[in-house]
Amino acid sequence: MKKDDVYILEDRGLLYLNGEDVKEFLQNLVTNDIEKVTNEMSCFASLLTPQGKYLFDFLIIKHKSGYFLDCEKQNIDQLYNKLTLYKLRSKVEILNLSNEFIVAAISKEKFLSLDGSKNIEGFTIKYNEDTIFIDPRIKKLGARLIINLEKLNLSLNNLKLNTGNIEDYYKFSHDLGISQIDNINLQNKIFGIECNYEELNGIDYKKGCYVGQENTARIKHKNKINKRLLAVKIIEGKITSEEIFFREKEIGKLLINNKNPFALIKIHNGQFDFENIYQCGNAKIKVQKPDWF
After folding, report:
1. What single-letter DSSP state applies at residue 272?
2. What is the pLDDT of residue 224?
3. Rounded CA gap, 76 and 47, in Å?
4. Same structural domain for residues 12 and 119?
């Protein structure tokens, strides 16, 4: 990521939740501790099935009397409906504000050049009323901006930012081992803990109950994490199937097949050979080892 580039994330959407019961409502649902989210701190979290399988992931940001959920736009209607289903009689209002606000990304270096910033995952500041926060998953991924659409150009000019190529941002995210596109393909196919949410600051084991908590805690405490969602890189050829093999032994399955593919990889006793070249259909691939692995 270039220091003075901004990446307009048109594929991201925003839900806004507020109301008398909003904090308790989210606390009982998501994998992270809502008590951590303040005007100075944002967090990463997910919503799981009761069995602990992945449904949605999002960033949670304090906004006025409620919270923004920064999520993948193609999933936003599903997430809205699921939250509405859980709402029941709770005094919570859920609004889709994707047409009123823009989500963008900037480099960590740019964020740290702003007054009041700190080099801490999730640290959040206001800049001319715009919310800017360093990515709570990993600092290298830079920072996020939430900007009112009506003053987008003014905000970017004030920050002296140039529009960058969104594909560069997502390639950088892929290189860091963080999946952000087409995560809908993970739904009900993978446990949340297998998405590396512990390493990416997305699970709090001390917060108490949430949807899927029992299975997530059991897998963690019995040390049964034998699969991981990892980025893969095509060395040559074309991916024509989901199964990944090494010497006729299946070692994983491709779950996200786009420009930045990810696969669920079998891990034996916490070990995996990242130097090997694997076969996926007609393609030869390598599994990328993230810094946090």
Report:
1. -
2. 74
3. 13
4. yes
Please, is 111 exposed, middle or buried when counting C-beta atoms within 10 Å of its C-beta (0-12, 13-18, 19+)? buried
Q: Are residues 232 and 152 in the same domain?
A: no
Residues 260, 137: Cα–Cα separation, whole Å: 18
pLDDT of residue 39: 97
Q: Judge contact between 212 and 247, C-beta under 8 A.
A: no
CB atoms within 10 A of CB 176: 18
Rounded distance, CA 290 to CA 252, Å?
17
Q: Which domain holds residue 115?
A: 5-175
Please check whether residue 113 lies inside any domain of the structure: yes
In a domain, residue 195? The reply is no
Has residue 237 got a pLDDT over 90?
A: yes
For 24-67, how does the pLDDT look when each residue is reduced to its tens digit (9 = 90+)?
A: 999 999 999 999 999 999 999 999 999 999 999 999 999 999 99
Question: What single DSSP character describes residue 75?
Answer: G
What residues have CB less than 8 Å from 229, skipping those under 6 apart?
179, 186, 190, 194, 195, 196, 255, 262, 263, 264, 265
Determine the number of helices (DSSP H) and then strands (DSSP E) in the chain: 6, 17
Q: Which residues are paired to 44 by β-bridges?
A: 59
Q: Which has more confidence, 15 or 89?
A: 15
What percent of the chain is modeled with pLDDT above 70?
Answer: 100
Number of domains in the chain: 2
Q: Global pTM?
A: 0.95
Q: What Cα–Cα distance (Å) separates residue 214 from each residue in 21, 218, 272? A: 24, 6, 27
| pLDDT per residue as tens digits for the range 136-160 | 999 999 999 999 999 999 999 999 9
